Amino acid sequence: MAAKYPALEPLSAEHRQVLQLCENIRIGLRNNIPKKRIRTYTNWFKTNFLDPHFELEEQHIFPLLGNNVRVKKALANHRRIHKLLSCDCDNERVLNLLEEELATYIRFEERVLYKELAQNLHADDLEILKKYHANISFSEEAWKDKFWLS
């Protein structure tokens, strides 16, 4: 999508990071990494990446699309993902659900929601998005326990 809508590339790059999180969860589960280690990683990712990303979407991106069915679906997905991330457990079922929900949601945003966004954005909107997006800085390099590499 980024090649088709270059103004949305930073957001698409963030989505690739979320898809990498999903892959890391899958690898951890497949390799029988202790669930607590995976959950500690997802908690860190939530705080350092997903929370700011969701906040940007909810406060500055979704309003550009108005109150439509796709925005309502996105907000419902945010709530489900937050619920899974807030679960104070480390069991495999919750981690599987989290990974599936995130991957499905990111694909929905890229294929449907951001496509609509790109078609409805004005030049002023793009400048505003760039400004707010610049406030999100994230580096997975800060996370030391790379269990998915073992």
Automatic annotation (TrEMBL):
It holds the Pfam family Hemerythrin. Residues 9-85 form the Hemerythrin-like domain. InterPro entries: Hemerythrin-like. It comes from the Bacteria. This is Hemerythrin domain-containing protein.
